[in-house]
Amino acid sequence: MVGLLVRAPWSTLAGQLFSASVGQALTLSLVCASLATVLCLLLGVPLAWLLARGELPGRGVLRALVTVPLVLPPVVGGVALLLVLGRRGLIGQYLHEWFGISLPFTTTGVVVAEAFVAMPFLVIAVEGALRAADPRFEEAAATLGASRWLTFRRVTLPSIAPGVVAGTVLCWARALGEFGATITFAGNFPGKTTTMPLAVYLALETDPGAAIVLSLVLLVVSVVVLVSLRDRWISGIT
Predict the structure, then answer these.
(1) How far is CA 106 from the centre of its chain?
(2) How far apart are the first and last CA of the chain?
């Protein structure tokens, strides 16, 4: 942090921050991270409920598979995505042949790569909130005739809302800073797949000042996320 602040080009910071290249990378990063977070919410919340409340055999194995991206090197995750969703991948070949869909080296590929890496943060947070929630309220709603969907929407979801919010913010921040899986699966094409972390990598070779500016933006986002979620973590622990 000190190194970035000391070496930051403060005199030209505003100009570089609003330059076309930085603005393009920032816009693409925000859009892709937001779309990846929405995808993670659609898939992660039901998955977290299944891990916390379901009676599925082998839940431990499923939980381990869900959390693998936390410890898996992102580059390896990108290679795995290529092997599965690439044009010759296990699933990608059929997507390409039947529907003409090709995910690698596209903006959609960026979203998929970011969602793959970031979803465990959401699932873990929501699963923890579900395990901490008192199931007696849900049982009371069921005895009063509420359906499972109504109980989840009106009782369960409000009670775990803080965990969902915390997981969503962490997921978005992780997606925003994703590099390894993105460059491996989606490549580095300006205006198409070059997000802020990739722009930092490119700028280090040609424009170190722009690299520092982009790094400062990512640093500010990280600090804001950590500070905003600190009280939630403390309250959850206590």
Answers:
(1) 17
(2) 30
